[in-house]
Amino acid sequence: MKISKTHHFFAGLLLLCSCVTSPSILAQTTEQLSQLRQQVSQSNNSGTTSTPNVSPLNVNSQRTLPDNGGDVNTMGQFSTQPRNGVSLPGEPTINTVFPAQEPMQNPPFAANLFIGGFESERTSGLNDNYMVAPGDKISIWIWGAVNYSSVVTVDNQGNIFIPNIGPIRVANTPAGTVNQTVTTKIRQVYTNDVNVYVNLLTTTPVSIYVSGPVLRPGQYAGLASDSVLYYLKRAGGIDFRRGSFRQIDIVRNGKVVASADLYAFFRDGKLPNLSFKDGDTILVNPIGNTIVVETGARNSFTFEFSSEELNGEVVNYFARPGEFASHASVAGVRNGKQFARYLSISEFSQLPLQAGDTVEYVADNEPQIYRINVAGAFAGASQLMVDKGTRLLDILDHIEADTTLSDTQNIYLLRESVAVKQKEIIEQGLERLERSMYTAPISSTGEGAIRAQEAQLVADFIARARQVEPQGRVVVSENGDIANILLEPNDTIVIPEITDLVHVGGEVMLPQSVVFNPDATTEDYIAWAGGFTQRAEDERIMVIRKNGNVAFSSIDDGMLSFTDNKPHLAPGDQIIVLPAIDTKVLQAVKDITQVIYQIAIAANVAT
After folding, report:
1. I want to staple 484 with a disulfide (CB 3.0 to 4.6 A). Which of 5, 330, 393, 434 is the partner?
2. What mean pLDDT is predicted for residues 186-200?
3. Strand partners, 474
């Protein structure tokens, strides 16, 4: 029968109304309603003679929960696929169940047992030590005088049944001896001309409960031959702050049938030899007495000990102090008061400890032999081991040098402690400069704007100055005489090479090295370097002598007058022209000038 367009339109409209008023529409989405409207519109425009069979049941095979405006593709959908760890809306997660905690500086000893995915790395073959349980399947072949083949299932009584043989007890039989057990029983009936082959095909999983301070307590399936570690890893591992690594009980029918100590496994590879049964419970007990080993040991962890193990000897055994550790520092509480001891390793081994103590191993051996470095123009080894108390002249006799190439009259040292002190002095000058800039008084708004610009310039200078690393140079030679000073660990003895150059740097146009000319004046050397820049301080020039000594001079009629009473430049000297500070621009001229001189002397650079 032909249906008019008007009738067809009202039919579609009624369909939409029924969808809106029907309770089943609560399971539909806005997108699906739009599809319905499009289908009705298309049917009105096409003028077809039949109405499509549209129903909420066949619009979309995937049903959804009521939508609250979220993403339809990710929220509230029923699915037949595993969730793969995705939580449902409102489902508790580890962030809502566990309180927020700071990461542990010293995690528990043996905590790395639960790193990785070893629970999924089970071998495909059966374990020969697996104990046969009800539900396991066994394949049996008999040939010769009698032919028989079948796959039998171990019944609830632990038996398998073979025709003409009867029931055979196989429960709690190791998988490796099932063939021998069944064959022996068959040969009691068929004594001649019968061959038998028996093989365990499948094993029945067991259901194990994991409880106590673990991350995900609950019920887990596995094989009876799986280890305690397997089920603990399935449960997320032991809670580091609450769970015990030493007391893990396996409970069966309300009784503890075995206990696991993960320290014994970690140190000696020992785990309880147990075949799990359906309904067993792995119970992790609360954590016991703990001792924290902070530093100085190979195993700097949080250790759990029984009351009998609370002594230094046990801690030494598990923590394994470093080779050079000589003392142990112990801190804790005794009778409500602070307790602290600093003992040798042997004395610490006899010390009783209490729960909550912290231990730190210290290498407190006084060095009797230390290393000295040699740099520059020399031959032989670049490092020497010397006894404590050795002086410079004592070691110079053991350094090979070529007198034609080595300038043994201008030896100097590089010392780490001096470099640290120079860094401190520069930092003090920079801090004083910062204070002078940020605390300067301001008399007007215009002056304040100028001071703000100056402060930014000074801040940039301070940032660059703090990147300078001092050399720690120590002057030990003068006019061919060498001071016999006491050497320190890691000192570097520098023997300069004989050179014919004079180095010119700093505020000159072309910093370079110039061949020494005894007839040339200082003005000649600076001219060969391109002359002064516009920022050069030409009235106070720094000269660093080859032996590390520093002198300041000024140009007077083309000649340098030196503060160290040396009238002339010498080969190997370094001329550094420092920058001048405009007194009309910056207020802290004195502080900046002082810092520039300190940096130039400590690092041989002009900032």
Report:
1. 393
2. 85
3. 413
Write down the pLDDT at residue 10: 45
Residue 166 neighbours by CB distance under 10 Å: 11
> Quick check: 550 and 588 in contact, CB under 8 A?
no
For residue 458, what are the CA distances in angstroms to 33, 438, 585?
A: 69, 10, 11
The set of residues, in sequence order, having a beta carbon less than 8 Å from that of 499 and lying 6+ positions away, is: 407, 571, 572
Q: Where are the domains of the chain?
A: 131-202, 205-286, 289-362, 499-603
What's the order of all strands across the beta sheet hosting 473-475?
383-387, 369-376, 492-495, 412-414, 473-475
Segment among 105-119, 399-413, 524-538 with least mean pLDDT: 105-119
- What pLDDT score was predicted for residue 255? 93
- Cα(510)–Cα(527) distance, integer angstroms: 9
b/e per residue 261-278 (b: at least 16 CB within 10 A): bbbebbeeeebbebbbbe
Closest to 451 in 3D by CA, of 284, 235, 443: 443
Alpha-carbon distances, residue 31 vs 16, 40, 438 (angstroms): 14, 15, 64
CATH class belonging to 131-202: alpha beta
* C-beta neighbour count of 99 within 10 angstroms: 5
Q: Which amino acid belongs to residue 317?
A: Y
Q: How confident is the model at residue 79 (pLDDT cuts 50, 70, 90)?
A: low
Q: Which two tokens stand for residue 464?
A: 């660059």
For residue 443, pLDDT beyond 80: no
Say which residues have a Cβ less than 8 Å from residue 176's Cβ, sequence separation at least 6: 128, 129
Mean per-residue pLDDT, 102-126: 69
Give, for 454, the enclosing helix (H) or strand (E): helix 445-465
Tokens of 129: 């030590």
Q: Is the dihedral of CA 594, 599, 605, 607 positive or negative?
A: negative
Q: Which CATH superfamily is domain 499-603 in?
A: Outer membrane lipoprotein wza domain like (3.10.560.10)
Place of tokens 């010390």: 351
What distances in angstroms separate CA 206 from CA 135, 173, 225, 307, one per listed residue?
10, 16, 10, 36
Q: What confidence tens digit (pLDDT) does each residue in 473-520 have?
A: 999 998 888 999 999 999 999 999 999 999 998 889 999 899 998 888
Alpha-carbon gap, residue 501 to 516, rounded angstroms: 5
Q: What is the rounded CA–CA span in Å between residue 125 and residue 108? A: 34
CA distance 200 to 139: 6
Structure-token pair, residue 444:
């007007």
205-286, what's its fold? Outer membrane lipoprotein wza fold like (3.10.560)
Contact 170, 138 (CB under 8 A): yes
Q: Is the pLDDT of residue 207 over 60?
A: yes
Token pair of 558 as six digits: 């083309």
Q: Which CATH class is domain 289-362?
A: alpha beta
> Which strands, in side-by-side order, build the sheet including 289-293?
302-305, 289-293, 358-362, 327-334, 337-344
Model pLDDT, residue 38: 65
Question: pTM of the prediction?
Answer: 0.51
